[in-house]
Every structure is written in C-alpha cells, then in structure tokens.
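Support request from a user on the community tier.

User writes: "When I paste my structure tokens into the form, the page sometimes reloads and wipes my input. The last time it worked, I copied everything first. Here is what I submitted, just in case something in the input itself triggers the reload:"
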C-alpha cells in the first residue's frame, strides 16, 4: 500500500502560490473574472487585452501580484512581447496560460465577409496556438506548466439559430488543437486542456439578455433551465490550471448547464 499523509489537505492542490499566470481577454467579462480567481488562488497574474485603461483598473483593484500588458492578439509582435514580459515578471518562470480572448460575428454563413471569417480564426484559434507555442519553452524551463484554452459549447455543437460559422469553426478548432497539443506536450511537462462555457453573460452575449426570445432559447435548451453565473466557471478553471488536474490531458470540459447533453 502507498503511504498516505496523516492529514489530507485536498484543497491545497488547487493553490497557485508562487506561480505566474497569463490571462488574455482580461479587460472585461469572463476573462476579468478568470484573472481574479487565479490571483485569489495565489498566482501572480499578467492580464492582457487591447483596452489599457480597463486592464489598469483591474490591476489597481487586485493590488500586488498583478501586471497589465496591453496586447493586440492579432499582432505576432504583441504576442511575443506578452510572453516575454510575463517571463520577466516571473523572473524566468511561466506556469499558466489562459487563452480566453475571443470574438464573434453573428450573420448567416452565406453573408459572412471573408475578413470577418479571417479575423475570427486569427483571434480565436491562431492566437491561442501561437501563445501556447511561445509559452512552451519557458514552461518547460520552469519545470512544467498548464495551458487552459477557452473554447465554447459552439465548438462542440452547431450554433444555429445563432448563426456564426467563423466562431463555431474557430472554437471547434480550439477543441482539437487542445487534444493535439496535449498529446504532443504532456511528456514534456506541459498539460493542455480546455473549458467550453455554455451561455454566460458577457460582452459577447450581452445582446441576448433582456430579449424575451433569446432568454427563452437559453432556458429551453439548457437542462438546468437558465444561463450560467460567472462564478460557476471558477472551479473548472482552477481545476485545469492547477495540480488538481495533474492526470488530465487534452480534455475539453463543458460547463454548460447540460446544453450539450440533450
């Protein structure tokens, strides 16, 4: 039998003390919440988004162990700078990357402009891949790391009647990218997993709330009969970002109130 400690402390596995984490899309919504959660678990958090003022406000609110790096995720120069600055903040360490930033265009596929399609792929799929690629070496040098990609239930199932082909394609790509990076990097000490949120209130979905038809659509299709509250992603995030998920690789965890099971 394996020797067990006299006193178990299972909650300690979820702590992130001494670790350095990046959260993209942290200026508002779920990304802002993710930054707060990782910070509360003990991490030094590097928050990234285009809106510098919103990042500065978040950092001022968090206090110590928070750094803002304004970033345009469509710029590879900015992506490189984000990783470099995070490594500098961590004195060479980089432990956690949360690829949260995303955009969508709601329009029938036959009318989706090529430039809107390309931007969805660039922000939602190419940027997470490139940031993961750039984070790989410093994570290995740090003794290992975790990457949490934020996909969507619309990366698992079709979105219609919410018509957004580029978004669905990019988020589906994130799901399989997560599998492939997980398979390639697990033995090198970098674990890659993903969260697929269901319907949560955010800047991206704000047009739905207050609209009777949209709210009925969410209630009807969700087993729990409601949208998610932002705190209901906290546990999934901490699980995948921390040592609590040390034997989990390449998985996408749907936090969707049952949307994808019916």
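"...and here is what came back when it finally went through:"
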């Amino acid at each position: 039998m394996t020797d067990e400690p006299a006193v178990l402390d299972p909650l300690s596995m979820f702590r992130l003390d001494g670790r350095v984490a990046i959260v993209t899309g942290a200026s508002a919504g779920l990304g802002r919440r993710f930054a707060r959660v990782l910070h509360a678990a003990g991490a030094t958090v590097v928050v990234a988004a285009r809106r510098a003022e919103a990042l500065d406000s978040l950092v001022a609110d968090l206090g110590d162990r928070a750094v803002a790096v304004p970033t345009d995720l469509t710029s590879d120069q900015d992506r490189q700078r984000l990783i470099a600055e995070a490594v500098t903040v961590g004195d060479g360490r980089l432990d956690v990357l949360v690829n949260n930033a995303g955009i969508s265009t709601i329009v029938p596929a036959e009318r989706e402009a090529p430039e809107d399609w390309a931007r969805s792929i660039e922000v939602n799929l190419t940027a997470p891949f490139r940031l993961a690629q750039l984070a790989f070496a410093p994570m290995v040098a740090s003794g290992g790391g975790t990457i949490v990609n934020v996909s969507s239930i619309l990366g698992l199932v079709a979105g219609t009647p919410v018509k957004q082909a580029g978004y669905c394609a990019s988020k589906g790509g994130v799901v399989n990218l997560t599998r492939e990076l997980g398979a390639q990097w697990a033995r090198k000490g970098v674990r890659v997993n993903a969260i697929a949120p269901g319907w949560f209130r955010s800047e991206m979905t704000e047009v739905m709330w207050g609209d009777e038809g949209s709210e009925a659509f969410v209630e009807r299709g969700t087993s729990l009969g409601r949208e998610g509250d932002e705190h209901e992603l906290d546990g999934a995030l901490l699980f995948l970002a921390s040592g609590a998920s040390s034997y989990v690789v390449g998985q996408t965890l749907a936090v969707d109130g049952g949307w994808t099971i019916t």
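Agent notes: The reload is a front-end session timeout and is unrelated to the input. The mean pLDDT is 93. The CA atoms of residues 125 and 213 lie 30 Å apart. Escalated to web team.
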